[in-house]
Amino acid sequence: MAIQEGKKAPAFSAKDQDGATIKSADFKGKKLALYFYPKDLTSTCTVQACNLRDGFKALLKKGIEVVGVSPDDEKSHLKFIAKNKLPFRIIADTDKKLVEKFGVWGEKQLYGNKYMGVFRTTFLIDENGVVVKIIAKPKVKEHDKEILAGFGL
Predict the structure, then answer these.
(1) CA torsion angle 142 103 44 59 (round to 10)
(2) Tens digits of per-residue pLDDT, 37-53?
(3) What are the residues whose beta carbons fall under 8 Å from the beta carbon of 2, sequence distance 6 or more?
(4) pLDDT at 1 exceeding the cut of 80
């Protein structure tokens, strides 16, 4: 079943770049921008992460937590975070349970080659765990503004 705006987000529990567990329950009473991206240290994913880094204080000021998710492992996430000075946590979804649960894993195509990958998507989840907005194909250079607008801020 596809995730829909206005419905509860799926519950999750996963490990971040440090091996610490992140659970959906940790964000009860908080706004969450859960953003899924294909791969650490690639050009478009780096632009998106750096945009969120640069807008991070403004997002926090509005009560919005940011958590990234990709199938890369903890070691890759640690490099990505260090290289780009990212202030938020990133889930290492190496078993692809989260990308599948949120419906953002599927067949993609690049230069005529088909492969399985992550569809760049952000889920905006309110204080009650309800998906208020799904941003498919976010504008990576202004994603922080899209998140604020998605929450009506």
Answers:
(1) 30
(2) 999 999 999 999 999 99
(3) 103
(4) no
- Beta sheet of 89-92, edge-to-edge order: 89-92, 64-70, 31-36, 121-125, 131-136
Instruction: Judge contact between 116 and 127, C-beta under 8 A.
Output: no
Does the active-site annotation cover 50?
A: no
Domains, the chain, ranges and CATH? 28-150 (3.40.30.10)
**Catalytically annotated residue among 45, 52, 66, 92:** 45
CA-to-CA distance for 143 and 146, rounded, in angstroms?
5
* Token reading at 35: 């953003």
